[in-house]
Write a structure and sequence with these properties.
The chain has 234 residues and is an alpha+beta fold. It has helices at residues 4-18, 24-39, 62-74, 78-85, 104-110, 143-165, 168-197, 201-214, 219-228, and strands at 43-50, 53-59, 89-91, 115-123, 126-135.
């Protein structure tokens, strides 16, 4: 069931963000977090098209991140299919789709993902990526959930394309590359911090995000500080 109050909050935040000079990486991370709350799912992420390949940019949990890596490695699954078809691809139970995705389905099942919903990020017929939604249990994706996911996917596409249009073609490539490069720095910092103080990578990322918000700086700035120094976010 869709959390309508949370959805209204997300839409209001979108209006405020689009009017500001926002950081695309932060916006996509926040959108993924919002989607988990709005739809009550286990994890969510965003992948962007780099030429014709999906590249993982954000994920809300370690399981989600691993599912995104599997998708990126195989270039297959419901999210990739959603881009090819230009429409949502709901999957109730991946155990029923081994013939459809013989490598992808068993791989994500092994990490605890049972259901998925892939939604293309499309604006004005331009496909820029996918909104990737995961559940640890089999799930029937009803019309309300799919419609809500489409609404949030439209927000994600608008974030990406608006950021890109601000500086035309060259800036588009730079924005997409920044998001992809940021993911590498974030993943490295999560691992460094987790090992440094003996916590999970998921907990490490929550500390990094909290520090970025507290100091009103970019996530990547905190990540670089973790990598380059002995800094431990509270």
């Amino acid at each position: 069931m869709t959390d309508q109050e949370a959805l209204s909050r997300v839409l209001r935040q979108f209006a405020r963000t689009m009017a500001a000079n926002y950081d695309i990486t932060q916006a996509l991370h926040d959108l993924s977090d919002d989607l988990v709350q709005v739809l009550g799912v286990s994890a969510a992420g965003v992948a962007l098209l780099d030429r014709d390949e999906l590249r993982f940019v954000t994920a809300t949990s370690d399981t989600g991140a691993e599912a995104e890596r599997i998708q990126e490695r195989l270039q297959d699954g419901p999210c990739m299919e959603s881009i090819r078809r230009g429409e949502p691809v709901p999957v109730r139970d991946l155990a029923e789709h081994h013939d459809r995705w013989p490598q992808y389905a068993p791989a994500v099942e092994q990490i605890g993902v049972r259901a998925a919903l892939g939604v293309p990020l499309v604006l004005e017929d331009r496909r820029v990526g996918s909104l990737d939604i995961y559940s640890h249990e089999p799930r029937d994706w009803d019309d309300e959930a799919i419609t809500t996911a489409l609404t949030l996917a439209d927000l994600g596409a608008a974030y990406v394309l608006n950021a890109s249009e601000l500086a035309q073609t060259k800036r588009t490539a730079e924005q997409l590359q920044t998001a992809l490069d940021s993911r590498i720095v974030i993943e490295q910092a999560k691992g460094v911090l987790a090992e440094r103080i003996g916590i999970s990578t998921g907990e490490a990322f929550q500390r990094i995000r909290a520090a970025a918000r507290r100091h009103s700086t970019k996530i990547t700035n905190i990540c670089q500080k973790v990598i380059d120094t002995d800094y431990v976010p509270d």
